[in-house]
Amino acid sequence: MSASQYRGQLDRKRKQRWEAEKKAGDYRTKETQKRTAAANARTAAQKSSSRTTVASKLREAERYEREAAAAGKEASRWQGKASAYAKEELASQERLLKAEQSEAAAEDRRRKREQLQAERQTAAENAAVRQRLDATEALVSGALRELRPPKAERLRVLILGAAAEGDLRVGREQKRIRAAVESALHRDLIELDVRPAATTNDLLDGITKFRPHVVHFSGHSDADLIVFEDELDEHHQGVIVTARAFANAVAATDDPPLLVLLNSCNSASQIDGLVERGVAPFAIGMADEIDDGDAITYAAQFYAAVANGQSIHSAHLSAQAALELAGLSGHELPTLVHSDDVDPATTVLVKAAE
Question: What is the number of structural domains in the chain?
Fold first, then answer.
């Protein structure tokens, strides 16, 4: 993850801590107020000579004390949350510092390389050498990989959804994706293989039999793993698959995909590896925890844009814009990476025949 992504993560953790501390303070204030009210009621009972008044004031004092105890319990709960957020904030600060140091070192190396290149170019003494350098630079700048085009029949999209514990709305996401594609300009040029309650067998079968151009996963994940389902009818913990095992499975085909989209929490840490290992030239993941609604909105708009003939880059920007326009907080989380020899701004997955 980049320093800007860690910075956004730090801001979110800091905001969570502030909100938790405010709630804890509010409940402590309420607790104090209720205990003061209880003390006042007991004082009033002691001063009164009326039995009825005494009994009423004592009941009132007991009620205030119960409310004070409840407020104190809530204050402690929110203070505990604030402490946990503070630890996460500290960890985010450490990760941000390391990322900033790494980027600063990379920038320093880049400046040194540029300085060395400038010195070498200045040392060139004749036009022939300069012409050869210009020709080489032109060749390198234009030598983008010739990606295999989508098959003439349709762009194939394998959609895997896994929520073994029943806590994610992957079915809703798959429904929204299908609806978005079916209402798009080039809907007849896309074929969806939708697999809810996806198992590892679904992954391998989909890769080898369906030979997808796009592999889409929605479910649970983190920086090192992805969770698939087991062949069980009841809710269960799921099958944990390492990021490496998942990458090996996706790569186990003579027709590798063009794009892998991991629409799951903290999956951005896996996408650089997918690209660097040559599993796919393009990959998209989420930089932090993403809400169900944000993930669904991003996926639906991304595939709508793809089916309307937009490039991968534009479809990604359009899906981020859909989140921001809807007032959702996760618009900065989707992250697109690609190999150096391809360009997402010129790669169009769906194009009508001319």
Answer: 2
